[in-house]
Amino acid sequence: MLDSMESMTVDVYVARIRRQLLRPARPEPAGLFVQLAVGLAIAEMLVYAVQKVYMAARGEVGMPGHPAPDSVQAQFEHAAFAQAANASLGVVAALVALATVTRWGSRIPRWTLLSALTLTLVMQSLGAAITLRRTDFDLAHLGGSAVFETLSGGVQIAAWLVVAMSYYVRTGRPRVHFTDASALVPTRRVQAVAAYVAFVCALAYGAMKLDWALGGEFLIRQTPLPRAARDDLLERATDAVMQHWVSVALALVGMVAALHLSGCFRPHAKVRRWVLLVGSWAGCAFMVARAVGVLGYGFVNDVRLLSGLVSVPPAAMDLARFHARWDLLLWSPYWLLFGVCWGVAAWHYRRQGHADSSHRSHGSQPAGAHLMDQPGPG
Question: According to the UniProt record, where is the region Disordered (predicted)?
Fold first, then answer.
């Protein structure tokens, strides 16, 4: 009898595990913004596949316009087969992105597609980082190829981040049915978009600092800093390297905070909410002040320097103008976008908290909405 009970228990657990592993994800419908990101990700992968087919036809390793060195070419006895395999991986990645927004993809178990998305996101991010690192960022000789590669790499990382995060969120929540169209709150979408943009900005900043900490020089010469700090960066002084690692840690904290600001987690306790809000407002104020020019470099001071309203020693004029151009075109817009998104996400997160508290105090759910009795997929 004990043997039969143990057998039944094992069968029950096996059935539960099988049901969890094979249960379809059935994600929530994707919005227009997510569909656009999926389309960009698919387009990037198809372009990649075509490029690899072209290199396979040539029998070379690398990318069009950037073939691998001869020492690398010699390592591949059948370069065409290797490139054809890479082309097929590009097609598979495009299908993975497509599966997140299609009906047939909703039948795939959540863990399967999330694993594929994570692997694809990591590989595409590494590929985009390699592309950005080999790009010549000299403004005096900045060509169309460098601009295209930079934009393509940035769009590639951002698109795959949106695809992966959206699928994670859309498959991990209880479904909400609205009986009144007025109950659809557009501010939640604004909050999520702003938080995701802040997440991407934090990720980009952390990746750059990690590259510096590991000895890379991606955009390090284009960073506007005082001469002493710039020399420490280039000479890899101990203090500078430690600051890089601290910046990486802060970027990770910022990424986690951005995810919490997106509203994709359960409401937080009052203390955690205020810690998150205070940190977000402080970060927003610092970034906007940096972008405007209150802390030194920024839009105002860049324009003043480039227009000749600021006196600079002749020996440092070329370097100062070089940094001012880069700050005006890249760093100040980046910090402004980062700070504004922090502020917008924090503002809506605060309003969301007030709304949730009001509904809890009245013992009711938001008007026009009710949760299904069954938990959401995943």
Answer: 358-378
